[in-house]
Design a protein that fits this description.
The chain has a single domain (about 1-195), classed as P-loop containing nucleotide triphosphate hydrolases (Rossmann fold, 3-Layer(aba) Sandwich), CATH 3.40.50.300. The N and C termini lie close together (about 10 Å). The protein is built from 8 helices and 5 strands, in the order βαβααβααβααβα. Helix 1 packs across helix 8, helix 2 (about 40-50) runs antiparallel to helix 3 and helix 4 (about 95-105) crosses helix 7 (about 155-170). It has a 5-stranded parallel sheet with strand order 2-3-1-4-5, with helices on both faces. By secondary structure, the chain is of the alpha/beta class. The structure holds thymidine-5'-phosphate (TMP).
């Protein structure tokens, strides 16, 4: 199984991933937990470039290509080997995030992400948990953490566009994308996720 976890900032992805990991461990299932952008030393360096606010404005197309460069490395070094060893992969974000953030948030054409997925993505998640909450709730939670990263500094409207793309993708692929109400208590969200697995 290849499972990804998606949602706008502050919706509780990390808590849900920990809960699912504990559940798999209790079942004796062999798995890895990884994340995007990142998951290998090189891809984590690219993550640093993407998330650390700097003086230089990053062009949306540059952001997109850096994300897919990190993804190519992550796939070849971590995800593909784990799946071929028979391990489950729990991944904090995957290609749905590129559609949501780069096409929704940054307004890049969907065809650009589709082309990169076709060319460079060898395997897609069989299940995706989309944690959904009103943008202001997530932003308030994310704002309580330390310094805001380059994405978290975006405006409310940006995250509304991101959320709208997640909603459209979930409606188009209801078998794969399980929508979870992130305003519920963490234990309830976890119970729904386990049911939806
Ligand atoms: P996170 O690990 O806290 O979710 O931060 C990762 C950030 O990277 C998040 O703001 C969303 C962004 N991102 C994209 O814009 N596109 C992508 O394809 C991925 C994987 C992440």
């Amino acid at each position: 199984m290849f499972i990804s976890f998606e949602g706008t900032e502050g919706v509780g992805k990390s808590t849900l991933i920990r809960g699912v990991a504990d559940h798999l461990q209790a079942q004796g299932i062999d798995f890895i937990v990884t994340r995007e952008p990142g998951g290998t030393p090189l891809a984590e360096q690219i993550r640093g470039l993407l998330l650390t606010p700097d003086g230089e404005k990053i062009a949306p197309s540059c952001e997109l290509l850096l994300l897919f460069a990190a993804r190519a490395q992550h796939l070849s070094q971590v995800i593909e080997p784990a799946l071929s060893r028979g391990q489950w992969v729990l991944c904090d974000r995957f290609v749905d995030a590129s559609y949501a953030y780069q096409c929704g948030g940054r307004d890049l054409p969907t065809t650009q992400v589709q082309a990169l997925v076709e060319q460079f993505v060898s395997v897609l998640p069989s299940k995706t948990f989309w944690l959904d909450a009103p943008v202001e709730i997530g932003m308030a939670r994310a704002g309580k953490r330390s310094a805001l990263d380059r994405f978290e500094q975006e405006r409310h409207e940006f995250f509304e566009r991101v959320r709208a793309v997640y909603a459209a993708r979930a409606a188009a692929e209801p078998q794969r994308i399980v929508k979870l109400d992130a305003t519920l208590a963490a234990e309830e969200v976890l119970a729904f996720a386990i049911k939806g697995m």
